[in-house]
């Protein structure tokens, strides 16, 4: 089996699961953006996905994203979802179209000064205590007010990673509740970036608009 056939089959199987998960809870599958997470995989794999029609790609490390993004066509949409280091923000801003992991006002402030316009998600902690990043839900309204006062950032929604020790249905339901509370005050902040290879179906049930899937498409990382 060629790599092209392997990736195509994996992608088709994944999209079938996305469709089933969406329809099972009365959602339109087209509401859900699949971000193909390509960290550690070569540019050739991303090109295969591009040729299959995918345009949304995700990276967790600036070192990889900054090297790969310029090599792909301009109509690709690049998503950064890793933990942010302040000294990497300028580089991240140069290639990432959407940043999913803002959880600190100082990072938002610096990013706003670097760009003319950037779409962001705010990362919310679901209480795992494993240093995955994210702001406590109680502190989120204050962070939103601070960022909305900046000129160059658009908050599209909330992002989270489900803690390993918590049922993902429970974790993502909690995230959806936080989003609903935010949207009552800021109706434009409605999107949810949640769900990875092992739990994306749970995320879809809780309203995820963006799922970040890698190994189900490209295989297990070395």
Q: Any overview of this molecule?
A:
41% of the residues lie in helices and 17% in strands. It has helices spanning 3-24, 43-51, 62-68, 89-95, 105-114, 140-148, 168-185, 200-205, 215-218, and strands at residues 33-37, 56-59, 77-80, 98-102, 118-123, 153-159, 191-193, 210-213. The mean pLDDT is 96. The chain has one domain: Alanine racemase (TIM Barrel, Alpha-Beta Barrel). By secondary structure, it is of the alpha/beta class.
Q: Percent helix among the residues?
A: 40-55%
- Global shape: globular
What number of structural domains do the residues give? Answer: 1
Tell me the fraction of residues in β-strands, as a range. 15-25%
Question: Helix count?
Answer: 9
Compact summary:
With 222 residues, this protein is of the alpha/beta class. It has helices at 3-24, 43-51, 62-68, 89-95, 105-114, 140-148, 168-185, 200-205, 215-218, and strands spanning 33-37, 56-59, 77-80, 98-102, 118-123, 153-159, 191-193, 210-213. It has one domain (3-218): Alanine racemase (TIM Barrel, Alpha-Beta Barrel).
Main traits of this protein?
single chain, alpha/beta, 8-stranded parallel sheet, 41% helix, globular
